[in-house]
Amino acid sequence: MKKILILTAIIGALSAAAPSFGTDLAGQPVKAKAPPLPVAAPIIDWSGYYIGVNGGWGTSHNCWDFNGVAPEGCHNSTGGTIGGQIGYRWHIFNMVYGIEGQGNWADFSGSNVSTAFPANAVGTTTDAFGLLTGHIGYAFNAVLLYGKGGAAVTSNTYHLNSVASRTELANSNDVRWGGVLGAGAEVSLTPNWSAGVEYNHLFMQRSNLSFTGFLGTDRAHQDVDLITARLNYKFGSPFAK
């Protein structure tokens, strides 16, 4: 009987203490986990060697005259192009400077009936071109805008065709030098890869053409417009700045 009374007293004491214990727990502050610190976006460094491929569309505008005095008309030689480029860039603050060499295969062709000799048609085919340019640009971190300028060279074949029979009467080949101005935009895709689009205008020198079996010479003037998409791979440590 004594043990039962002692046990009853203990249960009563615990029951009385329970509300007070719950109140003490409720009053304790809850420790919340601190939010993670924001991670800064990586700073893109455009410096380094790069190599890439390009492809797109071109138009060569060609005007001929006979012996420099008799106009024979103009035509556009249009078609596709594909090639590659290699270069190096220096990234100084937000400015980006570079030098690049580019070589392309081309398939630009076109013709017109000669206004001086209506029985004949004159045509131009451009099968290759090359560029050696300096670049200057401004980097908005992962986006690079730039202009370029330098030297250009084109490889051309000139055709003299019969309008009636549509057969070739003669042809002449030359390699022509000139200048180039252009502009482009490039976006960094991954630490090493970037893609962009570029426009170039080639100002080519006049060329004197001679055709076997025909007297006199033709003088040809050529300008070329190019729009290409580009994909580059940059060597070295990316995003390190």
TrEMBL record:
Domain Outer membrane protein beta-barrel: 45-235
Keywords, in A-Z order: Cell outer membrane, Membrane, Signal
Transmembrane segments annotated in the record for this chain: none
Signal peptide (from-to): 1-22
Pfam family, one: OMP_b-brl
Alphabetical list of InterPro entries matching this protein: Beta-barrel_OMP, OMP-like, OMP/PagP_B-barrel
Compartment(s) of residence: Cell outer membrane
GO cellular component annotations of the record: cell outer membrane
Domain of life: Bacteria
Predominant place of localization: membrane
Coiled coil keyword on record: no
Similarity section: Belongs to the Omp25/RopB family.
PANTHER family: BLL7405 PROTEIN
Protein name as it appears in the record: Outer membrane immunogenic protein
